[in-house]
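Request: Give me one sample?
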Amino acid sequence: MSEVGNWVLEEFTPCELPKEVADGFEQVMSKLVGVRYTPLLYAATQIVAGKNHMIICKSIPAVLNPQSSLVSVYLHEALPVDGGDFQLLSVQQIKIGI
């Protein structure tokens, strides 16, 4: 791919997620195939019936000559009384450029 006119992602240092979130992230993402997500920024939380977590990740598809991108990963952590398990709510592409 030519870099002229195209946006090129910078090299990011993966972030360190809080222990319980890192465990939940690994639990959820280990079930996905075809793409690898690397946490870059633990961006936000939301208290609901449990807790939602927003993590900005680098996404790399498992294809020949992959093009990496940035995505927002949303996880839900259930209340301890409900088992405390994590589930994937959504993965949303972050648009780069105008």
Observations:
- Strands lie at 35-48, 50-61, 69-77, 86-93.
- The first strand starts at residue 35 and ends at 48.
- The two ends are 19 Å apart (CA to CA).
- Helices lie at 19-29.
